[in-house]
């Protein structure tokens, strides 16, 4: 089914991005096959795997993840520009997609990234698919940025969290957007007249690790990165949560100025940004969200298809067109 060219804008959201897989499954099952895919961050990963014909492999990988396996993929880095180099994740992508170039794909695809220093929005629409994904999901401070053509690039969600504008620029006449962070909009309220009295600290500072005990260092990094689970946030929670609050504000502003033709918003409350091991739940929620919108989607696409292909109006008696 087509209404001109259908664009699919897949937004960022870290682990929540597995919901994109469920959305795609529901759309494809209904016969809706996007002609253009634009992705930011995890949206670039899922979208890129789809256009390259490897969505099944990505889904299998996601469903097999456990907490232990997620930690095993994190190659901690203390001497670079990110806490995680991302090399292990990159190797997994290279295994299936290393040969893929964006311009050779059957459908149009673009990954969005942000240039360090200038803040320019960079559209990666040519070259190696894996490198475009890496640049788009490089969370500032978490993953090492990627250098492409002399530009240091990181997560595109900082400038274009849901790349609707990219789909339209690539020729999409009907754009479906997937917003993974709709449930954090409640953070936009104002809390006035709060008294600045700090709570007593309940957590002791971790003791310095001495010697060359690699296991101890790794455990310390894991605790510092993910927190202890007693409501004391880890580094990743602080950084990513702050990043997503900014992302939410930018997304709402851009959506107001350039709304999509249809919006799919999975209900992901209670799922953390690093809960990559919850793929089964996330994929199901994405599918449910897409199915909620399918009736309206099908009706609108049918209407657009009819209006796009209706025969030209016949001249009236006065020579005008009705």
Describe, in short, the structure shown.
The protein has about 325 residues and is an alpha/beta fold.
Averaged pLDDT, please? 82
How many whole angstroms does the radius of gyration measure? 22 Å
Shape: globular
The biggest sheet amounts to: 8 strands, mixed
> Class by helix and strand content?
alpha/beta
Q: What is the element string, with H for helices and E for strands?
A: EHEHHHEHEEHEEEHEHHEH
Number of strands: 10
Summarize the SSE layout with pairings.
Elements: E1 6-10, H1 19-29, E2 36-40, H2 42-51, H3 55-64, H4 67-72, E3 82-84, H5 87-97, E4 108-115, E5 121-124, H6 129-137, E6 141-143, E7 146-148, E8 151-155, H7 164-169, E9 174-178, H8 214-226, H9 235-257, E10 262-264, H10 279-309
How would you sum up this structure, described in words?
The chain has 322 residues and is α/β, with parallel strands linked by helices. 40% of the residues lie in helices and 14% in strands. It has ten helices and ten strands. The chain has helices at residues 19-29, 42-51, 55-64, 67-72, 87-97, 129-137, 164-169, 214-226, 235-257, 279-309, and strands at 6-10, 36-40, 82-84, 108-115, 121-124, 141-143, 146-148, 151-155, 174-178, 262-264. Strands 1, 2, 4, 5, 7, 8, 9 and 10 form an eight-stranded mixed sheet that branches. It has a two-stranded parallel ribbon with strand order 3-6. β1, α1 and β2 form a beta-alpha-beta unit. α2 packs antiparallel against α6. The longest helix is centred in the last third of the chain and has 31 residues, at 279-309.
């Amino acid at each position: 089914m087509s209404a001109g060219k259908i664009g699919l804008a897949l937004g960022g959201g870290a682990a929540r991005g597995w919901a994109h897989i469920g959305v795609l499954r529901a759309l494809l099952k209904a016969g809706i096959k996007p002609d253009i895919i634009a992705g930011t961050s995890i949206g670039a990963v899922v979208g890129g795997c789809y256009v390259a014909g490897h969505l099944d492999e990505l889904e299998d990988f996601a469903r097999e993840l456990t907490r232990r396996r997620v930690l095993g993929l994190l190659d901690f880095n203390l001497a670079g520009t990110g806490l995680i180099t991302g090399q292990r994740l990159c190797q997994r992508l290279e295994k299936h997609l290393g040969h893929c170039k964006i311009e050779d794909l059957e459908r149009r695809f673009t990954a969005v990234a942000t240039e360090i220093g200038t803040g320019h929005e960079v559209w990666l629409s040519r070259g190696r698919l894996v490198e475009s994904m890496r640049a788009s999901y490089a969370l500032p401070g978490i993953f090492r940025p990627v250098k492409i053509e002399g530009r240091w690039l990181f997560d595109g969600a900082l400038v274009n969290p849901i790349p609707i504008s990219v789909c339209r620029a690539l020729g999409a006449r009907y754009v479906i957007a997937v917003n993974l962070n709709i449930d954090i909009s409640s953070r936009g309220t104002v809390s006035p007249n709060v008294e600045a009295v700090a709570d007593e600290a309940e957590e002791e500072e971790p003791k310095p690790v001495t010697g060359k005990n690699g296991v101890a260092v790794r455990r310390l990094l894991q605790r510092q990165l993910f927190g202890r689970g007693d409501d004391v946030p880890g580094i990743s929670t602080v950084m990513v949560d702050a990043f997503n609050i900014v992302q939410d504000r930018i997304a709402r502003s851009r959506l107001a100025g350039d709304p999509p033709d249809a919006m799919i918003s999975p209900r992901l409350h209670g799922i953390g940004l690093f809960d990559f091991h919850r793929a089964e739940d996330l994929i199901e929620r994405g599918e449910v969200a897409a199915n909620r919108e399918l009736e309206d989607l099908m009706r609108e696409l049918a209407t657009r298809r009819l209006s796009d292909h209706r025969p030209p109006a016949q001249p009236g008696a006065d020579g005008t067109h009705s």
